[in-house]
Design a protein that fits this description.
The complex is a heterodimer of chains A (about 80) and B (about 240). Chain A has about 80 residues and is an alpha+beta fold. Chain A is built from two helices and three strands. Chain B has helices spanning about 15-25, 65-75, 85-95, 150-160, 220-235; strands spanning about 1-5, 30-35, 45, 80-85, 100-105, 110-120, 135-140, 145-150, 165-170, 185-190, 195-200. Classes of the chains: A alpha+beta (about 80), B alpha/beta (about 240).
Chain lengths: ~80, ~240
């Protein structure tokens, strides 16, 4: 079992990295793309167990350390 | 006065901060490894600059869970003064002792240069000795110093006079050009509502002696010392 967590900057937060990537893509000829948001991907290996219990614990971990709620959103998935 | 200068893995301004406290200002201080759990006997805490834990995950995100930070929370809750410089500011924000967050510089570049700072509020332990109208010439050295907070928080900071320092040009104006990292409202440093916890991105400890090109940073440490002396005298 594993958990995957995607952390992205909140839409209201300046994202110079995303903007720079968008500019580069535009310059390379990929016309018409919208805003780019650069985030983080975390994969956490889990022993077999109750997925709901892991979801609860990792949700808490996302709040406490894996993301910063002031500037980031996260999306958590548990895969069997 | 007795200062605790915290040391995390990859702190790198700890010795400079201790040098200023001991050799420049003539007070006592000690480096305190992050695994320590007590701040007994200390009058003030400095969280120095550096790249604690390699800036992994986010700047300051892992350091804030070090054992010593529990003691810092208690120390701050009891009114003890805590000053976070650069990475120390980032750690204080991650720890929730200061509002907001420090994110990647607008330019995406690591900025290493001298800037001008305006003191926006003189009624704090960290600014009380800075003369009205005096601009501080201090160095910055950071890649993630862009101060961000949502609008409601910014309004609270403004209303509570918690914005202590702003990036300004040589004429003292908080212009966009004088903003080295994209910080909202040109914020370089803030304090908490109780005013005993402050953080700033510039490095006063690197500019506390004329031989280093500026001694303006001394005013911040001298403010803190005079505040502590007043507090002690009042308590006696």
């Amino acid at each position: 079992m594993k958990a995957t967590i995607i952390v992205t900057p909140k839409k209201a937060v300046l994202d110079p990295q995303g903007k720079t990537v968008a500019n580069a893509l535009e310059q390379m000829g990929y016309k018409g793309i919208g805003a780019v948001h650069v985030g983080k991907y975390l994969e956490i290996e889990l022993p077999a167990g109750d997925p709901e219990s892991w979801r609860k614990q990792l949700d808490q971990a996302c709040h406490r350390i894996l993301s910063n709620p002031v500037i980031e959103d996260y999306h958590l998935e548990i895969e069997a | 006065m007795n200062f605790a200068v915290l040391q995390f893995p990859a702190s790198n301004c700890d010795q400079d901060a201790l040098h200023v406290v001991q050799n420049v200002l003539g007070h006592s201080g000690r480096l305190l490894w992050h695994k320590e759990r007590s701040l007994a006997g200390f009058d003030a805490v400095i969280i120095p600059g550096g790249f604690s834990y390699g800036d992994y995950l986010r700047t300051g995100a892992i350091a804030r869970f070090s054992p010593i930070m529990q003691a810092v929370q208690t120390f701050a809750a009891q009114g003890g003064p805590v000053l976070g410089i650069c990475n120390g500011f980032q750690i204080l924000c991650e720890a929730g002792l200061l509002p907001g967050a420090l994110i990647r510089n607008r330019s995406l570049q690591f900025r290493c240069e001298h800037i001008f700072l305006k003191t926006a509020a003189h009624d704090s332990p960290f600014t009380r000795q800075i003369p009205e109208g005096k601009l501080l010439r201090l160095p910055i050295a950071h890649g993630e110093g862009c101060y961000f907070a949502d609008d409601a928080t910014l309004e609270q900071l403004q209303a509570g006079r918690q914005i202590l320092w702003q990036y300004v040009n040589a004429a003292g104006e908080p212009s966009d050009q004088a903003n080295p990292n994209g910080s909202l409202r040109n914020i370089a440093g803030i304090c908490n509502p109780a005013r005993n916890v402050a953080g700033l991105m510039p490095h006063p400890e690197r500019a506390s002696e004329e031989i280093l090109g500026s001694a303006d940073g001394r005013l911040i440490f001298e403010s803190l010392i005079s505040w502590l002396q007043t507090k002690l005298a009042t308590a006696a």
